[in-house]
Structures are given as C-alpha cells and as structure tokens.
Predict the 3D structure of the following.
Amino acid sequence: MLSPLTDALQEPFKYCIVDPYPTVQLLSAMQRALHYRDRHFHEGNIGGIAAVAADTLNALPRTTPKKANEHPQRRAFGKFLQIAKTYCPKNACVERCQTAFLAFKLAISKHALTNNPEFAQFAKSARLERQLVLFDHTIGEDAAGNVSLFFEGRMQPWAAVQAVALAPPPPLLDPLPKVYNPPVKYRADGVCNDNCYNWTELTPLKREENPSWGSRYVLEICALCKGDLRFTGDHTWIRLKTPEGDIYAPGLYREDNEFWTAFSVKKGAIQGNDVSEGWDERIHTVSFEINEKQFRQIKQQVEKDHQSSDLPFHLVKPNCTSYALGLAGLAGIRFPLREESVVDHFVHKKVYAAARALRSVLPQPLNSLATAAWEVDRYFCSVGLNVVQKVLGGGRVSKNLSAERIQPQIRSPVDLLKPSKLEGRSPHFIASTLPKALNEARIAEAARSGKDPQELQYWIPDSWKCG
C-alpha cells in the first residue's frame, strides 16, 4: 500500500481515496480540470489521504527514533503534512495524521501523545525527535501509555521532567533581544532548560563511544546548504573532535536577521553548541587532522571570542563561514581558492554559462569579444548590487559594536564601484567548492603515494598548510 500512497503524499492534488478503503486512485485529467479551483473538493481529498497516511503510520512497527528517521518514506509523510497543514490546517484527519507522524518519529504509540497532551506540546515545540536522533536516545513507554525521558543522566517519568521541560528559557546574559535564540530543551544528559549563548567554557555537545576518527584530533568544518547560495537558511560552523570521542560544535551568528539592515556590520554571537546539529537537513563536512595543541588553541580562541564585545558579522564577509575558516587558520590550514562573488551566484550564473558556451564555439576574435562583454556585464551587475547593499545597511555598523577598527562594508561612493565588496565565502563554499578541491587533491595524493584514499580522509595538502 505504501507505493501508491507515496505518490499521493508527494502530489496530493492529483489523488483521492475511493472504496474499498483505503484504495488510492489517480484523478483523471478531466477531474483535475473540473475541480481546479474547488477548495472543498481538494480539502476532502487531502483529508482522505491524511486518514490513510495516519492509519499507515500507526501500523508501522516502533523501533527507535534513529531508525524512524532513516525510514525511506519519512520525508514523503513530512512533505505531505507541510502541504496539508497549509491548505487545510483545521481538518480533523490532517490533525490525526500529524499526531501519528509525531508518534512514529518519537517511536512511541499515538496513545502516549493523546494521554499526555503537555508532553505532546513539548515534543512539538522542542522538536524532540531531532534531539533523540542526535544523541541516539529513546523514550520509555509503559502499558498505560505513560512516558519517561532521559533527564539528569537517567530515565525518569514525565511527571518528574515536566517542570523543567515546560519552564520558560533563561534570559541571555548578553542582551541581544533579536538574536536567533531557539530554546535548548535537550542535551546529552537529557531534558534541560537553557539557551545557546549562556556559557563561558566550551563543553562537548556529545561523546561517541569508539569514535570513527580513532585516536586523532579532528577539525571538521560543517555547513547546511540547499542548492545555490542563499542569504537565509544556510549556515557554517565547526566541530572539534577528540580521541576520547568528545565533539564540540560552536558556531557564529549575528545579532538579528532584519531585512532592512541585512548588510550592516552586526555584532556576532557564538552558540556554544550550534543548534544546526539538530536540524533535519544534510550536513556537508570537510575534515582535517590536527594535533592537541591546535585543538586547544582553537577552543581557547572560541572562548575568547565569545567574551568579546566587538565580534563583527557581515552577510558577505566576515560571516559564519569566514569565522570557521579563520579558526582553521589557527591549525595552520589555509584555503588557496578564490573567493566567490554574490554576482556569480545570483545575477550572473546563467549569463556566465551562456558566455562559456559561446566561447567554446566562437572563433578566437569573437571569443575574446564575448569574454570582454561578459566581464563588462559582470562589473555593472556588481555596481548595481553594491547599491542594493548600501540601501540595506551596507554603510552602517551596529551600535552594539564600539571598536573603531570595525568599518562598514560600503564606506564611500568609490566602494560602490568595487566588485570585491561582494566577494566572500559562504556555506555554499563549504558544501560544494571546498570538498571538490579537497577530494581532487586527496585523489592525486593517493595516486602518487599508492595509499588507499580512505587513509587520506583527514590529510591536508601541502599547499594548504601555513605557519
């Protein structure tokens, strides 16, 4: 039953449920045309699909949150519910499907949620299933549907956990009222009540038994990135891994995400353990072996920066990516790759592709002309985007930064004419450009030395070393 249901989950406006229940049927082209704007018709069909989806989810065997996260149909159910909640949020079948899906992800019965409404609300708001996957924890459930969670290092009933779980998060020690600050409700020792910024000493996110990196110290640069460069939703941070299996995961954020000051230089704030570790997206990584001294230098620098009152953040540079790459510099690693321009990602990508195609077929004189035309076009696009940058705060520095050395990105009209003001490194650089260059270097080294490429997964090219 999952195969036709999966099709309906992915394209719910093209399917309906018919007798005998739960038969999934593709709507004919005529039906779709006749009911194209019939909201009542589509709400009924989506409700029917949601009812079948709920029954299917409730029938699936319960394993662990980690295995549930790996289920091949999980994303299809999630995508369907995003559509269904938007189109008919108050539909009873859709609400039942939401409960069944949450119970499936938590690896508990639906009765555990319906019997404990406050726990259900906590699980939704804290995105508990992601934390359980991250720490490889489970939820206990007895025959009566009562749940128990990991708390203070051991399993405890919901009644003992509830006060901490539902308490409002503590205020920030450094008052930045608009900083991205989701409450921290779960850690390696279980349910907690904290935020991402109230720390003084960097502590591990978690510890892995028998770590896959062996007895090494490892610096890992991580990025969340969907497709091409974006100014929202993408992020870079680092992981520091020790031979004991400890994993530290600090990351830099900015004081706010307001649109009208998007290009201002803002105050940076460091999350001791980055919330991105628990996001339900692919994490791109590049890894390098470092030594204990370099590990301690990076850790101490992060702790020092966290205490700084003048840590700058700019959308292009310095940003979360340049901060992570700067920490790699403390380990003697540099990245001899050109910086990427916002123009090439947003405005110029198709023009650049067309120019490359033309250069491959045109004779030499015209080839040079096409190249010159592309460069001229790129320059004027850069000027135009610099004007946009100026309008959106590019000439300002946040009042939360006081150091005179911190200057705005656009300091004078002359800066509007500089394409370099749009050049930097983004999470896209970590997700795409850097792994490609690093893999090529490691493959070349494997061919030269005769080593297994697996032995070189933490190897640093000589040309990337400094200091």
Observations:
- Residues 1-107 form one domain.
